[in-house]
Structures are given as structure tokens and as C-alpha cells.
Model the fold of this input.
Amino acid sequence: MLSIQVTGKRLKKQNREVTKFISSLASDKRISKHVLMINMAHVLALHKSGYISKEDTVSILRFLNSFKLSDELDEDIHYMLERHAIDKLGIKVAGQMNLGKSRNDQVATAIRMELRDTLIRTMEQILSFQDTIIRLSRKYVGTIIPGYTHMQRAQPVLLSYHLLSYFDSLSRTFDRFVEIIKRVNMSPMGSAALAGTTIGLDRRIIADFLGFEGIVRNGIDSVSSRDFAVESIASAILLSLDLSRLSEEIIIWSTEEFRFVELPDEMAATSSIMPQKKNPVVSEIVRARSSFPLSSLVSSFSIIKCLPYSYNLDLQEVTPLLWTALDTVIDSLRMTSKLMDELRFRQDFEKELSEGYTCAAFLAEYLSTKKGINFRVSHAVVGELVSKSQQRGISFRKAAEELLSEIARKYTGKRIILSGKEIGRILNPKEALRMIKTEGGCNPDKMEYELKLREGIIEKQRKTLSLIKSRIKTKLSHLEREVSGFVSE
Amino acid sequence: MLSIQVTGKRLKKQNREVTKFISSLASDKRISKHVLMINMAHVLALHKSGYISKEDTVSILRFLNSFKLSDELDEDIHYMLERHAIDKLGIKVAGQMNLGKSRNDQVATAIRMELRDTLIRTMEQILSFQDTIIRLSRKYVGTIIPGYTHMQRAQPVLLSYHLLSYFDSLSRTFDRFVEIIKRVNMSPMGSAALAGTTIGLDRRIIADFLGFEGIVRNGIDSVSSRDFAVESIASAILLSLDLSRLSEEIIIWSTEEFRFVELPDEMAATSSIMPQKKNPVVSEIVRARSSFPLSSLVSSFSIIKCLPYSYNLDLQEVTPLLWTALDTVIDSLRMTSKLMDELRFRQDFEKELSEGYTCAAFLAEYLSTKKGINFRVSHAVVGELVSKSQQRGISFRKAAEELLSEIARKYTGKRIILSGKEIGRILNPKEALRMIKTEGGCNPDKMEYELKLREGIIEKQRKTLSLIKSRIKTKLSHLEREVSGFVSE
Amino acid sequence: MLSIQVTGKRLKKQNREVTKFISSLASDKRISKHVLMINMAHVLALHKSGYISKEDTVSILRFLNSFKLSDELDEDIHYMLERHAIDKLGIKVAGQMNLGKSRNDQVATAIRMELRDTLIRTMEQILSFQDTIIRLSRKYVGTIIPGYTHMQRAQPVLLSYHLLSYFDSLSRTFDRFVEIIKRVNMSPMGSAALAGTTIGLDRRIIADFLGFEGIVRNGIDSVSSRDFAVESIASAILLSLDLSRLSEEIIIWSTEEFRFVELPDEMAATSSIMPQKKNPVVSEIVRARSSFPLSSLVSSFSIIKCLPYSYNLDLQEVTPLLWTALDTVIDSLRMTSKLMDELRFRQDFEKELSEGYTCAAFLAEYLSTKKGINFRVSHAVVGELVSKSQQRGISFRKAAEELLSEIARKYTGKRIILSGKEIGRILNPKEALRMIKTEGGCNPDKMEYELKLREGIIEKQRKTLSLIKSRIKTKLSHLEREVSGFVSE
Amino acid sequence: MLSIQVTGKRLKKQNREVTKFISSLASDKRISKHVLMINMAHVLALHKSGYISKEDTVSILRFLNSFKLSDELDEDIHYMLERHAIDKLGIKVAGQMNLGKSRNDQVATAIRMELRDTLIRTMEQILSFQDTIIRLSRKYVGTIIPGYTHMQRAQPVLLSYHLLSYFDSLSRTFDRFVEIIKRVNMSPMGSAALAGTTIGLDRRIIADFLGFEGIVRNGIDSVSSRDFAVESIASAILLSLDLSRLSEEIIIWSTEEFRFVELPDEMAATSSIMPQKKNPVVSEIVRARSSFPLSSLVSSFSIIKCLPYSYNLDLQEVTPLLWTALDTVIDSLRMTSKLMDELRFRQDFEKELSEGYTCAAFLAEYLSTKKGINFRVSHAVVGELVSKSQQRGISFRKAAEELLSEIARKYTGKRIILSGKEIGRILNPKEALRMIKTEGGCNPDKMEYELKLREGIIEKQRKTLSLIKSRIKTKLSHLEREVSGFVSE
Done:
């Protein structure tokens, strides 16, 4: 009988430099545990269908259980695995392992399994980040900051209200991942090279063993599609936008000019010569790396765009881009969350804002709702009031007390009087915010309610994630138990 | 009383070149009908809360009902609208229109309404494209083509099976749009500039009037977030990938060398000097434009990435990018669908493939499952058979008939015999495909079932879309009825 | 004799919806004058080689001289032009126009001619922007602002020094365009469809008539390459980076917190209710649109990446992307230049910075160079000095006067004494900057020299551009004269 | 005297996780040798200006000569280097090393030095690739292949002519790198943190020691600009486009359907079961990775776009993107060049194309130039001839012999006769190509001239590169000699 070293023969022929150039082994490390599970599930299915004897099944499972990726050069993990199996078990036993499967369906399956895990890690980081936001919002529940449009001060807002805008955006991305994971968690196994196989395999059993919720029905779709990767990257981009904008804010807030926030020493780069200087390095790096998911998408798109069906090796290059995109946001979420927890916010804005113009719009609305002045007119009245206060160099509050009646009469012909107390209340940021009536608005009296609402959302999200994790775990434990049963014999 | 021309005063001051440079009017045309509805709903809500008299409400609604965008220069539609209202109705009436709203929440609301409509149009095009795929698959239900990996012939597949891989990918994108539209269809109105308003407005009523399913709770989130735009663009990218890959295939298939398909004269560019030449221009343009959604995403990301909260004018530039992304895929889906319907596929591949090597893998699996040869060995046996057939210059089928036994004995030591009839069946593409056992596999006997399955999916998708549309329509008709009630008095 | 309506026949066959979908006419408007010149030059060359009679040459040139693009539907300008020529002149005369040329070489030629003009316009805008920088630098030649690293105040710099960093960057991009225009300004004409033609045409004469400096030698390269477009876009990206960063600075500088600069009323969007608020809308739009060249590049790359040689229709979609990229930077340069000219910079930083820590590093260097303290030690000394001043709540200057000797002795064991006058000079921003010794450094005494240097550079750049323009103009005037000679007969 | 451990103190404070997150050490390995040279040149300059004694200079240079990066955690190489220097030499000696320099100017300088080397390596690969093209063109100098437009056969071309189109494109990119390297090779040293230094340093001497051609004059420009990186990446993108398009061609050419080329066994992935199948894996990987420079650009742009001056840590993340872009094209050029050298092209196209329609356009031109038929008419005549040959199922050549006269008479009313020999010559690809008259056209008789021309270009490019390299080498050897002089004392 001839000695058969299928993959060995191939490797002798292929130029080593070529093998090195095209090898996916560096990236395969990350999916190696999934590749082993796939092989286990497949061997069990082959055994169930009578293609492999019990004895051989035991041998192969034992081999798989102890296999470690070596540093040898090879095209990929699949070739290396079979080569080692043949070396160790002989071709008679190992030769059946690949009956009814192909590298094409295996690699798609392994990427989906690893992506599933990575998405779960991302979702856990989102939850943890949202916890931080709530914690910070509670800590600074009454703190007022200026709110901006066009980076110009517009009106006072609550810091907690500002932070909740990030919370809500993150919740939407959490939901996206819940939806994506459903599409990711479908098994390509049984699609073989591109169209299924004549081997009698129950795709559902294999899918179940591997923690999937179902199968990718069409074989060409199974091996050629990477939409699940692209949409995962796209959601990482959405996370990146939140992270980058928040980092931009932290950097601006920690300038000497804005002084909203003081960075913790241990998370900044200080200068020995200027101890007051705390470079916001964590936020700078988060901001810079926020572009990585985007460039993963650009490359992935460019790679996939020109590919006729079915599998082309180009697809191999998409995988590392996927991990870069998600790992970047996981790390950035973790570090930003850590940083947020240590930020010390300035708490004396209330007084400063009482003197300025940021409550002008509240005054205009007040004149409209309480004093019966048409809104566009009350708007004009307050506008002139601001002007006058600037011309005379007096505070807006003083101007309101002294000039409002006169200006209002000029515009409306009517006598409008506001008491000093009334004006004081309207121009006091917190009091003014208390007048906000719209649902979800920035009213200090409603913040407790708003925070409770978000705590409820976190709770719901946490349950959803737990369910996803436990379903996968349960399914994988079936595989583990089955394998143990064989191996321990 | 003073004459107040709020926005007019502003415009006299702003340099006309500046106004032109920053104006969004060109892009506002697309959202103008939504802006009018928003104003109607808002005025009704103000009336309900007692801020506007019935008479004034009637006047304003009549004005809105007949308003048309003019060609005058202005910053945006919101300013132009109020300016015209004041001109026409006087400040006393028109001056209350903007009580409790801002350009920030209005523009976010209008974009969401137009996006909702555009997403629905995209989903309709997907459905129509999937209809085409089913129609084409039924028309060519038994047609065999070579399946490829690495652009090298791998094994025969059914054309309909190949087409269904696109179907399934499109279904996933349809599902994505269903999920996205839920997040899009939430109302920012009532968020005002960034934090809500002291005006007593029921955000739920306004949202209902405008066809929304709920409200974007946080005001800063309402006016600063564009994640709904970015995720819509991202799904357009996924559609683009399908369209580009299919176009690439059509272009390759219609080369003189591949000759899979003949293009319809009326959808190709022919050359008067070479009538046999039909340039696949539709597919070339679809392929080229498939990159437009990606560049929309790149620009959108770059724009949003650096923006601290809340509204910055930069966001205005995201909107046209969003329309470009979706309009491109809508047009490309429509034209490609039209083209697909007219393609004439070659139908004589079955014979050609019977002679070649594309069924070699089937033979290996057959030896493994029916003749008890270990798979890696049967693989080697067939490998040598292919080699020998090439060396001797005989067809693979002939080689199998003459040499298989001998080679098999060399590798296994056993006597393996396949009858000519057996070999003929295995190497006949259609017969070979009939042996495929795995669920969802490319087995001609199962195609009817697979097609039925997809017809069921189309049905389900169509119902989902109908429901979305009818819910919006019903809500909008409430607004229309209410407005009519006032206007007709 | 048969009537021949070559392109007419084609159009009847092609579906109108298809023609509309693939038509480049909208974009062809921009290159129409170049297409006409190309036809003129080509016809003249055909006449010189004896392929067209004098009489016919006159007729065709007259036709070309008066041709206007119509609104009819057609694939492109080339078809429309020949169709009209045949209609007007009859096939006997018009039928020779396209001897020896193809749409492929014509379109590549016309794009290069229009790109040449557009690059020149871009370079003119750069020059004009650099003029503005010099004007502004002279106006504020002594003005001090804080210089930043990590958005933290680092040390005082001169505003003019800051502005010159943009100047130098723009000069490099100017140089890039000079280099690019050399590669752009080569003629593809004579390459015909892809490989040249059997018609005896002197490519050099045609190139000369059209203002080119030479020919693109290889025909496949001529019709398939778009590297000249991609590198033009890439340089627009570099311009965009300067524009975006400068806009970012203007936006930050005009915040209430930084107050470096006051925007001119007529170039900001003011709010009627908060007159102090000036939204920096021009800079916001410039910043947003700075991403357009990048997305042009992404799309162009994705389009070209998959194209085998030679011409594919996909290339048609690159052209509008090229114009978008360059038009965007031309407009943004113009508007930003206009804005810069009107900025009013704050001029009272000198005093503010005298009290703070921004000159701390100067003090450390002083101790090192004048008082013989090892640099790392002097660094530590000043570090402790800053610390102490903060702890004691005294100004850095006061701390230096009171504590420096003591701290220096602690670190060095030596007696180090600085007079109050010495300290005052070191901690005075302008005095401190005067100590800067390195070439090109921010020394107020050297600013005149630095400005002169840049004026010289502008002069040199202006001459280079003049030369480029006049060479093209001279060549084109030859064509014009030649055409006039024929037409006027 | 106090013990001073400046950087050590800092590190104790900074959280290790933070340091790890922001550390650039992984990427600093690549620039470490340049950082050491920078320190040497700087120390020598300090010595020349009298800031460091000869003895200390010797000690520091010896330390630098033997320094190796350790695996310890640190922010970056600059901190690590000074920390080690202080440990080893004591603060008294090591403390002067950083007098007059900053991490900001050092890192910009080191990146420029490494980029200079990497650009040179890229240019060497381009030259070597162009050598391969010439070698291959000579080997197949007479080989005819079909030329394509829209992937439809258009006319015969010479393989060598096709290859030269890549040659010319590569020459343009070579020229770009020559231009870029001039801008890269300017020294930021002496700019210190952002504005120069009070230390008397001759920037020109330091620049010279480090192989630069001049200095980056403005300090803010020096430390904040990364245009040199972006334009290098942009040129890598242009290289990538050539590489991707060529790979696309090789993949298509090696399909069973096109069969233009046979891949070498050792550079393909063969399948043991289908030995005829040779997966073009090298070209697939090159094609996929061609998108890497683009995504480097997208990320770099996004990072830089939002940064106010001067240095922000974000810039650190640009550096690895730059190396990825260039390393990818260097590797891909090398592997593709290797592959090209082993390709075996099919040589029997001449006969096949004689029978088909690819010479139809030559016939039309022939009728126009030799038989006096107006071109649009001769075009129509040949068009009908092609049609008829298809209808009758006879070869184009046979149709020309039998039907041309008749059709020509129908269109022109004249008697036109072509001999069989004449027709045979026109429809023979090689003979037809010989009729091409335009300069640079695909005429077999001119190929030797065209090849010589390109050999001349290679020669010129090689000299340019040699000059660049030798200038740098000479300058660096001055530094080396100077250092040796001190160290060996």
C-alpha cells in the first residue's frame, strides 16, 4: 500500500515564500479552539451516520482534545490539523475526518463562532459602560453645565442629561448587536465546498453541537457571504462615533479654557515641568483609534466588491479586519469607562450661568406663555434686552430688572411687568430647567425618573444577553459531554 | 408697535455669498413636504394646549397647505417658511408658529420621515428583485452551470441554486431594514434646541400625527445623533456588495470566453462594427456605483467623528450623503432586476461538464461511501485518475472506466469495481447532484421545495412591509383629517 | 445609396431607461468645450495628412465652432456630436470626423484638459490664500497667543508664527500640483480604442494644438489609466486636511471659553435672541466638506481596483468624483480666505500669559544655559517651583522671585540667584520668545525675515503658475488661429 | 542633593493599564535605530555649542552605541532611553541629553528617516518589477493576445504592449516617490516642542548628520504636519491599483475559459483531487491586500482631520498605518514580480484571432484609407459584413472574400475590390498590427524600439535612486565617523 501524505506532497511543491505569503496561520490562532470543536462535532455526526467506527471516533476525538497549533509553516490550520492527525493516527483513522466537509464551510463556521463570542464581549462592555454612565449621573445628579450648539453656549443643561444622550445611543447599538448575533449564529457546516455533500450528515445536529440557532441554508451563500462580518464592523463604527465624540468632549472639557472636568493623575500624562498640565492621552488615543473600524469596513468592502461566487481566497483577508474593528471598540469602551469613573466635574456653573445669557430663551418662552406676548415678538424683546445689557455693560439679570418693561412696551404697546423674584427664578439655571414640561426633557425634578427608566433598560439588556449566552453554553455543553463520553472510555 | 422681521434682519447682515455657501435649500426640497406636516402637527398641538386660537390655527394651516418652496436664497427651509408666513399672515398670527420648536428638532424629524419613505422604497425594490430571482430560477430550474472557487471550475451547480444565494442575502438585508426602520421611526419633536421646552406640548400626539411609533426621549440625543442615517447607509453598503458581485458575474458570464449568458440587445451597448459585441454597460455602471454608499459612509463618519454635542452645522452635510447612498441602490436594484429578466442563459453545460473533471469530488465521495475506501485515500485515488487521464489525453470518464480499478488496488490493496453505468451516473452533473443529501444542498430533486420556501419568505416579507406602510398611512391620515377639519371651516 | 444613421440606429435599439441610466451627458457638459477642441485638432490633423479635403475641413470646423450641447437623451457627448454633425453636414462630410479616433482616447483627453484648468484654479486659490495669511500675519505681527500641545497650553507663540505653519503646508501642496500637472498634461489622442491606429496621424501635432506637453505613449495606458485623477484627488485631500484643521481652530478659538477671535457678523449666523452668539457656520461647513475629497478617493479606488485593461465603462463614474474633490477645496479655500481676512484677533494675551506657567520651560532652559544647571535638574527645579506656586496660591512669577534660589539649592547644592528683572524678562512671553535661537524659530525679532522669505516663495510660485498657464495659452492660440484661418475663408 | 528620577516618578503615578493602552513602544521598534542616531547628532551639536563637555559627550555616545530596546513597559522609546541613560550614566551626565529637544520633534524626525528608507525599498521593488516586465516582454515579444474593452474582445494586441502599459504607470509612481522623498527628507530637529528653542543649536548641522537635505523651517509645521505620511500612503494606493488590476487579469487569464496563462505549480495552490486546478492564490492575496493602503489613508485622514495645532497624541496612531501601507505594496510587488517571471503564456492566439472578428476595425480603416470610402460608411459596410457572416455561419474572412464587394457597392455605389491576399493580410492579427502608424502604437515592428525606450527609462530611474541613496549614505557616514572618533578615544 502506498503512503499517502496528501497535504505534505502539496507543501513540498509550493514555494515556501508563497506559503508564507498566503498563510492565514497567524490569524487562525484566534479561531483554533472553534476549528477543533467543529471537527469534534463533525466526527460525531459522521459516527452517528455510520461513516466512522466508534473506535476511530474515540481516537480522533482524543487527538482533537490534545491538539495544539505548532509554529510550523502551513497554509492554514485546517491543513496543519489533518497533517498532524495523519502523522499521529495514521491515514486509516485520520483519513475519514474530512469526509463531507471542506475548508470553505469550516472557516466560515469558525469565524461565526469567534465573532459570536466577540460580539458578546462587546455587549458586556456596553453594559458596563452604561453602568458607569448611570453611576456618574447619580453622582452628579444636580450638576449644571452649559449646553452647546455650534460650540457656542446655548442654554444650561444637567450633566446627567448630557450623559444620558450617550446612554440611549449605546442602547440602540446594543439592540443592533442582538439583531446581528441572530444572523451570525447560523451554521454553514454541511455546505462543504459550495453546494452540500453526498455524505449523509444532519446539519441541524452539527449546528446544535456548535451552539448555533440554525443553518445557513444555501451552500454558496454559506461559503461566499461575509455580510455578517460587514454588519458587525458597521455597528462597531457606530460605537466608535459615540466613543470619539465623547473623547472629543473630554479633551475640550479638560482644557484650561473650559475647565469642566479634572482628569485623574493616573490616567493622564503629566509633565514634570508643568504639573498643572494633564494631557488627556487616553481620550486622544480612543479618538484616534475610533477610525479603525471604518478602515476595516473600507478594506472589507473593497475586497468583497469584486468577487464572483463562490469562495475566493481574498475573503481570508477580511477576517483580521473584523477582529481589529471589534477589539478596538472593546478596549476603547473599557478604558473610557475607567476614565469616566475617575473624572471630577466642576460644580460651580450654576452661579456663573445665572449671570450670563444662557437662560435668555427661557425668558422669551416665559413672556409668551405667562404674559401673552406672541413668541416671535417676545423673542425680539429678549433679543433687544440682551443687546442693551451688552451695550451698557451690565449683567443680563440686571438688564432684565431695569429694562424689560420698557422694551416690551415698545414692541407690544402693553404694560408687562416681571418681579425681581420672577426674573431671578427664570434666570436661575436650575429653576429655569424646572419649568421644562416636555416628556424626556431636561427637568431636574424628572431626573430620578429618567435614571430609573435607564436602569430598567440595562436590566432588560442584561437579561437578553444572559439568555443568548446561556443558550450557547447549554448547546456547547452537549458537545462537551458527548466528547467526554467517548474520550473517557 | 415696531415692525419685526426677525429673519429678514439677519439676512441683511449675512453676506449673500456666505448664505449661499452654507444654505441647505437644495437638499431641503426633498424634505419640504415633511417640514410642512411637522408644522401642521405642531400648530395643532399648540392649539390643543391653548397657545394658539382656533382662528389663527386655521390661518396657519391654510398657509401651510398652500406653501411652495421658492427659488429665493435663504439659509434653509425653516427660515424661508417663517419669513413667508410672517409676510402673508402678519407677525401676530405667524409669530406663534415656532413656539416650542427649533430648527434642530425639526430637521432631525423631517430627515427621519423622508428616510422612512426611502427605506420603504428600498424594501419594495428588494422584494421586486427577489421576485425576479424566483422567476428566473423557475425559468431555468434544471439548468446546470459550473460552480467556481478561486474562479476555477469546482463542481457543477444548478443556476437556480446559485441565484438563491443572492436571494437569501437580500432577505437578510430586508430584515435589517425592518429593524432599522424601527429606530428611524421615532420622533425628535418636542426636543426643541437640545433639552425640551417649557411649552406644554404632548410629544406623543405630535409623534402620532407624523406617523412615528414613539419619541426619541433625550433631547441632546434627538438633535445630535445621526446613527439612524449611518446604519441606513451601512445596510445600503450590504446591498451594494450583492449588486456589485452579481454585476461582476454578469460581466464575466457575458464574455466571449465564458458565454454563460446573452445580454438583451436593448440593455447593452452594441458596436456597429462588431455586432457580436454587446458591452454589459448596465452591469458596469451598477458595479461602479456600488461604491457610492461606502463613500457616503466614509464622509458621514468623518463629519460626525469630531463633533461635540449637541447640534453642529456639519451635520447638515450628512443628509445628502444619505440620499445618495439609498437612491443609488434603489436605481441599481431596479435596473439589475430589469436586466436579469431579459438574460438568456446557455443551457448546454450538462454535456460539456460530463466530459470534464468537475464531478471528480463526487466520485471520491462515492468510493468512500459505497466502496468503503477511506476518504483521504479515495481522494488520492481520484487524484491519480485525473492525472492519468491528462497524461493519456483521454476524457475523465474514459479514464474512470479503464483505470479506476487498477489505481484503487494500488492504494488500497482491494479489488474495487464500478460499472460503466455507475460511472456514467456519477460523472453526469445532474445525476451527481441528485446524490447530494445535506439539507439546503444543491439537489435538483429538492429545488421545488427550496423555491417554495423562498416564496414563503417573500410572502412574509411583503406582509411585514405592508404592515409598516399601513401603520404610517393610518397615522398620517389622522393628521390630514384633522387639518382638513380646520382648513375647510 | 443607403442612408446611414449609425448612432441613431443604435439608440432606437437601446432601451431609453438604459440610456438614461448609463448616460454621462450631465457630467459631459463640463468637458464639452474640450471635446470640441479635440475634434478641431483631430480634423486639422486629418486634413494635414490628406484624409479630409480642405472644403470638408472648413465645414466641419464651422459646425464645431457653433455646436451647443442639447438636452436630448444620448449616451454621451461624442455620440451626440457625431449625430448632429451627420444631420447637419451629411454623412459624406461628417463621416470622416471619427477616422482614427475613439471615445476612449477622446474622453481621457478631455478630462485631462479640464483637470488641467481645474488644477490651475486650485493653485490660484492657494496663492490667494497664502496672500491672506501673509496679510493677516503682518496685521498681527506682534500678537501673542498660547501655543498648545494635547490642547493644553504649552508655551506662548506668535499668531503669525502659527499662521505660517499653514503657509508652509500649502506651499508643499502647491508644489505637488506643479508636479501633478506635468503628468496630467500629456495627450492620449492617437491611442484610438486602445492600441493606436493605422491612420497616419502626428500625435505630437494634435497634442500641441491642445496645449499638452507631450503624449501618453502606450495606448492601453492612455485609455485605462486614471492615476492622474487619483493623485489629483489625493492632493485635494491634503488641502482638505489643512482646511479642516484651520476650521477646527477657528471654531474653538471663537468659543466663549477661548475667545481668541471674533467672527465678522456677516460671515456668521447670529441668533436674534442671543446677539453675543455667533455661530461659526462657514468653518463648520468647510470642516464638514473636507471629507468629500476623501470619499471621492474611496469610490475611485473601489471602482478602478477590479478593472482589467483596457477601457471599462466603470471609469466614467470616476470623473464626477474628481470634480467634486477639487471644486470642494476651491470653494472652501475661497470662503476660508474671505473669513480669515475679517477675523479680529484678541491682542491681550501677553499680560495673561505673563502670570501663568506657559514660560516655565524657558526658565528651565535659562537655568541650564546661563546658570550651569544640568537640564534634567533645572527641569526638576522649575517643576517644583510650579508646584509650590500652586500650593501657595501665588503667581508663578511671584513664586520664582521668592522660592527659586531655595529650591535650586536643594537640588544642586549651589547658590543660584536670578534678579527680579531677569525673572520678569524670562516670564514675559515676548521677551522669552526673543531668546529663541534656532533657525526658523518663533522669535519676534525674526518674524520680518520669515515673512519676507514666504513672500519670496509666493513670488516664485506665482511665476511657476504663470509659466504653466502661458505655455498652455500659447499652444491653444495656435489651434484657434489655425481654425480661424479655415473658418473665415 | 536630591535624587531625580523624572520619568520614573511619572511612571509610578500613571496607571499601568493606561501606559499599556497609550504606549507606542511596539511601533517604536521600527524607528529605534533612527532615534539613537538623532540622539547622537543632537549630543554632538550640543557639544559643538559648548553645552556638553567632551568627556560627557563620549560617555553618552558610548551609551547610545550600545543601547537596546528592552521589553519593559513605557510610554515610548524616548522616555525609555533617557531612563536607561540616567540609570547608567547618572543624572549629571545624562541630564543634558534632552537639552533643546522634545519628543515632538524627535518622533517626527525619526519617522521621516524610516520613511525615507522604506520609500527607497519601495522604489527598488518598482525597478525590479519593471525589469521583470521587460524580461517577460522580450520573452514573449511576438505573442499576440486579444485586447479587451468592457471585457469584450476588441482587437488583437501584443502581450508585450499590454505589459508596457503597467511599466509606464509604474514609472509615473517612481517619479512620484522621487518627488515625495524630497519633501520627506527635511529635518524637524531643532523645532523642540513646537516653536524652536533658546538653546544655540545649528539645525543645519544636525540635519546634515542625519542625512537630510534641509530643515522643516516652521516649528509648528514640524511637529504637527503629517502630510508627508499621507502623500506616501497615497502613492502606495496608486501602486496598489496597478497591482490589483494586474492580479485581476492574472486570475481571469488563468481561468479554464480564458486560458491565457499557466501558473507555475509552486506558486499556486493545487488540489490533490483536481490536478488541473491551480488556484491563483498569490494574485488573490495581492488583490485583497491592495485595499490596505486605502484604509491606511482613510484612518490617517480621520485622525488628522479634527486636530488643532500643534502636537496631539492622536498622531501617534498614524505611524503604524504608514508602515502597513508601504510594507503591503513592497511585499506584493515582490511576490507578483516572482509570479510574473514564472508565467507561461499561451502562444497560439494568432490563428484563433485570424478567424474571428477582432480585426474588423482594421478592415474598416483600410477601406477608408486605401479605397477612399468615407469612414462612417466603411464602418457600416464592415458592420454588415460581420452580420452576414454570423447569419450564414461562415468565418469573417470567408465572408470578406465573398461578400465585401457587394455590400460596399450597396453603400457607396462604387466597385470596390480587395484581393484574397489583401484580406488575408488585414485579418491576420500580426500583419494588421504592422499597419499601425501612430507613435507609441502597438506595431510589432516598433516593439524593439519601445522596449529600448523603457530600458533607457529604467536606467535613468536607477541612477536617480542611486544618487538619492548615496547622498544619504555619505551624510550618515559623517555622523558615524564623528561618533567613532569620540567613542574610540
